[in-house]
Design a protein that fits this description.
Order of helices and strands: HHHHHHHHHHHHHHHH
Oligomer: single chain
Number of strands: 0
Distance between the termini: 54 Å
Helix content: over 70%
Largest sheet: none
Structural class: mainly alpha
Number of helices: 16
Length: 329
């Protein structure tokens, strides 16, 4: 496994080092796109597979747990009630819409629809990594969902800095649009930096509220998956009674860290270190996903999922603008 782990870490490190020269993409998108190319050409041999698979799955769990050290309940105060209600409605409508069109229009599996809903509503690959074990998703379902959500995030990164200031009259509204729609924390920061001003400060706060709701979304998805499982197992009431909602350990640790950080002033060296680790393992995760995402997987479901992702972000942006004008206009 060592070769694949080293390869994934090296690719993530190179993407991190190159990201200042390509700020519009960011390290996350660079790592994933380079991983897709390299994983299907130079490093297509199976000898890399086991290590890459390990590197894609487990470091991100640590990053999600440590994310709690940079999120507090007090983050919500600066948004006001209108900002909080906007985020909650935006998330709920996104999840319901994405799951509905996933099953009715694009005919994807319930697991993929739930991961797409969580990834778009909360925080991209981190949310998908949290939801995947709770809903019993396969590795291919998880990789395809992460790739789709991440590529959609890259599209928003290019589009929102243009349409946001053109459509919305002030920076707080633009912050809400970016913080309420862009998927990953890193992409929110990158998108906000392209607009500048107070958007750089407020967009991540809107985003953090979405991250705070991660545990609620995981519980909802796990409960939904449990109900689907029980419906499928109609022949055994006993098996239905045994169904449990399994919350991943890193989601539990995230909640604990968030509560501690909300009531105790932690050393800056600790919170800064946690932020750096979270950022880097997010890049590692996308590097591993890229290396593991083979052309065959993309060909079998790529066009369908890309269409799914495109419809999703169009809906997200449209409903976000409408809610912003109603609640914050």
């Amino acid at each position: 496994m060592v070769a694949g782990i080293v390869l994934t870490l090296a690719l993530a490190l190179v993407a991190k080092l190159l990201s200042p020269f390509l700020p519009t993409l960011g390290a996350e998108a660079l790592a994933m796109l380079a991983g897709i190319v390299l994983g299907n050409t130079v490093f297509a041999n199976q000898r890399w597979g086991a290590g890459v698979k390990w590197a894609e799955k487990y470091p991100i769990e640590i990053g999600i747990a440590l994310l709690g050290l940079n999120v507090t309940l007090q983050n919500m105060e600066s948004l006001g009630w209108s900002g909080v209600i906007f985020i909650l409605l935006q998330m709920a409508l996104t999840i319901l819409f994405v799951m509905w069109i996933g099953g009715r229009v694009f005919k994807v599996s319930p697991q993929s629809a739930m991961m797409m809903g969580a990834g778009n509503a909360v925080c991209g690959s981190s949310a998908i990594a949290s939801v995947a074990p709770a809903v019993g998703a396969t590795d291919d379902q998880r990789r395809t969902s992460v790739a789709t959500v991440s590529l959609a995030g890259v599209i928003l990164l290019f589009v929102l800095p243009v349409i946001g200031p053109a459509i919305l009259p002030n920076n707080m509204m633009v912050s809400a649009l970016i913080g309420g729609t862009v998927q990953s924390v890193g992409q929110v920061a990158g998108t906000a930096s392209l607009v500048g001003g107070s958007v750089v400060t407020y967009a991540p706060i809107f985003k953090m509220l979405r991250v705070i709701m991660l545990s609620v979304v995981v519980i909802f998805m796990a409960n939904n998956a449990s109900k689907l499982s029980n419906l499928a197992a109609t022949t055994s009431a006993k098996s239905a009674n045994k169904t449990k909602i399994n919350i991943p350990w890193f989601v539990t640790v995230f909640i604990i860290f968030m509560l501690i950080n909300s009531f105790v002033t932690l050393p800056h060296v600790l919170t800064n270190s946690a932020e750096q680790v979270t950022s880097f393992v997010g890049v590692v995760n996308l590097a591993g996903i890229g290396l593991n995402l083979k052309w065959s997987t993309i060909k079998s479901s790529g066009a369908k999922f890309l269409g799914y992702g495109l419809v999703t972000i169009i809906f997200q942006v449209a409903i976000a603008i409408a809610l912003i004008y109603v609640l914050m206009g």
